[in-house]
Amino acid sequence: MSRDQRSTIALETVRLTKTYADQQALDGVSLRLEANRIHGLLGRNGAGKTTLMSIATAQLFATSGEVRIFGQNPYENREALSRVCFIKESQRYPEAFNVNDMLAVASTLYPNWDAAFADRLTEEFRLPRCKKIKGFSRGMLSSVGIIIGLASRAELTLFDEPYLGLDAVARGLFYDRLIEEYAENPRTIVLSTHLIDEVSRLLEEVHVIDGGRLLLHEDTESLRMRAYTVTGPAAKVDAFTAGRRSLRREALGGSAHAALLASSPSEQAEARAAGLETAPLPLQQLIVHLTGHNGTIREGLA
Ligand SMILES: Nc1ncnc2c1ncn2[C@@H]1O[C@H](COP(=O)(O)OP(=O)(O)OP(=O)(O)O)[C@@H](O)[C@H]1O
């Protein structure tokens, strides 16, 4: 790979594993996050998302494997880490600090810090500037993280479930400001979330982690085109899904309903030609089907 090709990859992991005592959190994850895209890191509780992001940002050591940020090993690498902002789920802040103190500290950590943007976001999220963080609600703490993440203008910004406790209005504000900011100042964003329906319009690439493995990586648009459902007489549904990538089948009396991931652009037309109704499968439903209810990993999708 040439130097130019490598520089378009913001984050890369190669066969990354992490074992905590006897718990294997990551099991050979190799992924490449293209720069200047919005990536969704999706998966169920305990899938390994936080572990992956913590290792990628040098906050945790991997058991084995490699990680590179903009082509560099991030460990004890101040230059590489100055390009990264990681807003963790349940991020803790010094309790004696207020918002002004936090923003002042953040301005020294992030070379591209935009103080005017941080001020505007503080107003919009209605955060008291002088109240001690100690008295903040869970939602207010999430707002602090979101403000720092957005105003950091870090080339690689990772948000791990950034909106715990935030109401729908504040989450909407976050999505709107994120997309505006991204349009004006393209950068690499990684969003780890359970609220897939809410964020699906923002995501350009989807990475699904399940049981510590990368289950799927695909452009969101292509995934939207491929994920679909068929409904019709059970015998016709079964005949159509046989040998195809069927994720789920439900029987409804004499008819059946199945979710599929198309292998070819003509597949949905073939389903209609076979007398079945087709409909798009929302991303959230796709992820639910992919990651299953019994934790089974469906091989061969990544
Ligand atoms: N410090 C730790 N000690 C022991 N096990 C851990 C530790 N941190 C995480 N784990 C385990 O590793 C696995 C992956 O956890 P991780 O927090 O990375 O998942 P996640 O996808 O971020 O989950 P969530 O969406 O619930 O935050 C889980 O089984 C978890 O219990």
Summary keywords:
Alpha-Beta Plaits; six-stranded mixed sheet; disordered N terminus; ATP-binding; Rossmann fold; 2 domains; binds adenosine-5'-triphosphate; 302 residues; alpha/beta; ABC transporter ATP-binding protein; nucleotide-binding; single chain; P-loop_NTPase; 12 helices; ATP binding
What is the string of SSEs from the N terminus onward? Answer: HEEEHEHEHHHEHEHEEHEHEEHEH
Summed up, the domain count is 2
Question: Helix count, per DSSP?
Answer: 12
At the fold tier of CATH, the topology name of the largest domain is Rossmann fold
Helix content percent band? 25-40%
Structure write-up:
With 302 residues, this protein is an alpha/beta fold. Strands 5-6-7-3-8-9 form a six-stranded mixed β-sheet, sandwiched between helices. Strands 11-12-10-13 form a four-stranded antiparallel β-sheet, with helices on both faces. The N terminus and C terminus are likely disordered. α5 packs antiparallel against α6. The protein is 34% helix and 29% strand. It has two domains: 203 residues, Rossmann fold (3-Layer(aba) Sandwich), CATH 3.40.50; 69 residues, 2-Layer Sandwich (Alpha-Beta Plaits). The site of adenosine-5'-triphosphate has 12 residues, from β2 and α2. Keywords: ATP-binding, Nucleotide-binding, Transport. InterPro entries: ABC_transporter-like_ATP-bd, ABC_Transporter_VariousFunc, P-loop_NTPase. GO terms for molecular function: ATP binding; ATP hydrolysis activity. It comes from Paenibacillus herberti.
